[in-house]
TrEMBL record:
This is Delta(14)-sterol reductase. Its EC number is 1.3.1.70. It is a multi-pass membrane protein. InterPro entries: ERG24_DHCR-like (IPR001171), Sterol_reductase_CS (IPR018083).
Length: 369
């Protein structure tokens, strides 16, 4: 593909716009009408708390089922996304910029004094656009922060499935593609099975909604996390049995650490007396958990996330650094985020945090970092 053709492929079309807004429309309707567990969020500064309908798994399964039926009836093409990957990328990016501007203008004009919608304006327009002004803006009763992260995770799976369909259509399905797809399906389905855990994460609790989260959820997650699948479409990799087994081990270990650590944190926040590994939890200052994975490293969940990211890339072999963009990026991001978390926790917990650091000296990887 020459440069002119490449640039042309980024130009949004009416089809890409319809695909994007059709997807958002479905998510808005399904998220509002399908049954799901109503999960209370964290207590906000003014004592209020939002409630989140966690029906993402049902919404996803219904959508995939409708797409399969539609393809069987020749109403839709399963390769519609993979055939228009770059224009969907640009369309979603433009949408993210527009949404960010709308959030900025609406937030600046808001007189709401609630913790969810009270404007937080620094006066630095770059900072306000990047981090956002309001904590929990909504549209037609839909919490946009929760909606966007759901859309990003679901979009990642839809892109992958379309790439898989393209691979089958082109008769170049490989063991590597199957392994990559399998790991991603398990990871994403697990995310939606435990969707309520998302309500206790820092992004949902404390981050305002600006370009950082809008772009991160709608563009970065689905389009960069799927790079391995796109790469395998045009690069066939043959894996030995030993390589497959090793790759599966990395995935399983990463999954156990990631899911286990997040579950322990979530359960502790909901019930500080919940048993961890069959024992009463050990707590410093009545707030900081030092049992289970959280007694091994202060951010052990990040270690699990990094191992999972690596397992998504290992099926691509080592002939190119391109498929390893995701784990390399994630390593940089999580180290930056861990430093940011450490500074916030040191300010918030003061002497308790210093005691916690002595009890759990390792940040992410024990005996290394």
């Amino acid at each position: 593909m020459d440069l002119s053709s490449l640039l042309t492929s980024f130009i949004p079309s009416s089809t890409s716009v319809c695909l994007l807004f059709g997807f958002f429309g479905y998510l808005g309707i399904a998220g509002s009408v399908l049954p799901g567990k109503l999960v209370p969020g964290a207590n906000l500064a003014d004592g209020t708390r939002l409630h989140y309908r966690c029906n993402g798994l049902l919404s996803l399964l219904l959508l995939v089922g409708l797409l399969v039926i539609g393809a069987w009836m020749d109403f839709v093409s399963l390769t519609a996304i993979s055939d228009r990957g770059l224009e969907l990328l640009s369309t979603t990016f433009i949408f993210s910029v527009i949404v960010t501007m709308i959030l900025y203008v609406a937030g600046s004009k808001s007189n709401d004094r609630s913790a969810s919608l009270k404007p937080h304006i620094t006066g630095n327009i770059i900072d306000d656009l990047w981090f956002g002004i309001q904590l929990n803006p909504n549209f037609l009763g839909v919490d946009l922060k929760f909606f966007f992260v759901r859309a990003g995770m679901m979009g990642w799976l839809l892109i992958n499935l379309s790439v898989l369909a393209k691979s089958i259509q082109d008769a170049n399905l490989s063991q590597s593609m199957i392994l990559y797809q399998l790991f991603c399906v398990i990871y994403i389905m697990d995310y939606f099975f435990y969707e309520e855990y998302m309500t206790s994460t820092w992004d949902i609790i404390a981050e305002r909604l600006g370009f950082m989260l809008v772009f991160g959820d709608l563009v970065w997650i689905p389009f960069t996390f799927s790079i391995q699948g796109w790469w395998l479409l045009s690069n066939k990799v043959e894996l030995s049995t030993a390589a497959i087994v090793a790759n599966c081990c990395v995935f399983v270990i990463g999954y156990l650490v990631f899911r286990g650590a997040n579950k322990q944190k979530h359960d502790f926040k909901k019930n500080p007396k919940a048993l961890i590994w069959g024992q009463p939890p050990k707590v410093i200052g009545g707030k900081l958990l030092v049992s289970g994975y959280w007694g091994i490293a202060r951010h052990c969940n990040y270690l699990g996330d990094l191992l999972l990211a690596l397992s998504f890339s290992l099926p691509c072999g080592f002939s190119s650094p391109v498929p390893y963009f995701y784990p390399i990026y994630l390593l940089i991001l999580l180290i930056w985020r861990e430093r940011r978390d450490e500074a916030r926790c040191a300010e918030k917990y003061k002497d308790i945090w210093a005691e916690y650091r002595q009890a759990v000296p390792w940040r992410i990887l024990p005996y290394v970092y």
